[in-house]
Please model this.
Amino acid sequence: MPRPIDQSGTYRAYNPAWPQIQPAPWRAGRGALLLYTLVILYASLNPFAGWRIPQSFTLLSWPKYTTSFDIMLNIVAYIPVGVLWANFFVAAIRRRNHDSHGHYPEMQTIAWRAGLLAVMAAGALSGTMESLQTFLPSRVSSLADWLANSAGGMLGAIFIVAKPGRLVLARVERWRYRHFASGNVVDWGLLLLGLWLFAQLNPAIPFFEAGNVVSSVAPNALANVAIPLGAGESLHPYDPLFLLPQAVGIALNVCGFSLFITLLLHPAKQVWLNVWIILIVGFVAKVSMASLMLKAPLLIAWLAPGTVIGLTSGLLLAIFFAKLGERWRTLSATLFVFAGGVMVKISSVYHAFDETLRLFDWPYGQLVNFASLTRWLSEVWPLAAFIFLATVFVRQRRSL
Model:
């Protein structure tokens, strides 16, 4: 069993009571809290247009129409808010209350104070978002949403401060250090990996590509769903002018992403087995969401011939470059991520967002927020990964 680490990043002697008395430290936790808050802000205020002075303040009114799906979604969306805020407050209180010998107070003495602060923070965030929604004609604020969000934040906070939740987090941390390398940089890389996996939940975005599935299939494949591609426009998946740039862009992206993963994995683990597992998880997520959300003719439309060729070529290319040392592997990953991101932007065709929404068969609501958020993350991820890898490469050069 890997030994737990303290806040300085060094290993401590294993204490059997450790999982029960303190939270799992995560140095990128503040970054995760900031990013998830931005996600909540985006989902709550999208499309950020049409601001006007409201005629009435609807936050304290009960909505005329509400569904169990919306209530559950509002609860689930704020559970991570409670988890991240509670972990933040626990760490902050422990830092402020340790003595001169570096001894920290027992977890139980600060857990419920941190949990209460986390619930208040989640409620304040939800109240702010609901209040701002009254200024947007396309959004509806209500007391039900605020109560559901606050309940989600409370559940997340309880998960952190209660002993069963802390035991689960301790196991998660042990799993993290058993499969991935230690260090602050790796924590940020894992955060990027989590964002990539979340972006794969949008089945209208092709695998390791840009644009949407409308751009990747022939017009006759969309005849049953009545989605026009434009006057005189025809994209056939085997057209060399379309297939070759698409396959090259995907191959560069797959190679860069695979090398990116190798930089995060524990050096003692079987690297390529874990790379394959992560790629399979993303692939299964894409297929599952396609079967759940896309119209029947488009269930595998995103898996075009160029995708298959690009995936195979990219993995073969990554096997060759993975033999390099860590510094040159980082440089290779940086260049491949940059080149792949540029290439897929050039070879992909973007259609209007409302046309993309017609691809979905999803009657439960919140589709616009989900599709726009995941599409935005998919577009921004290559740039974020490029900045991350370039920063890692510069730090490696300075450490020589």
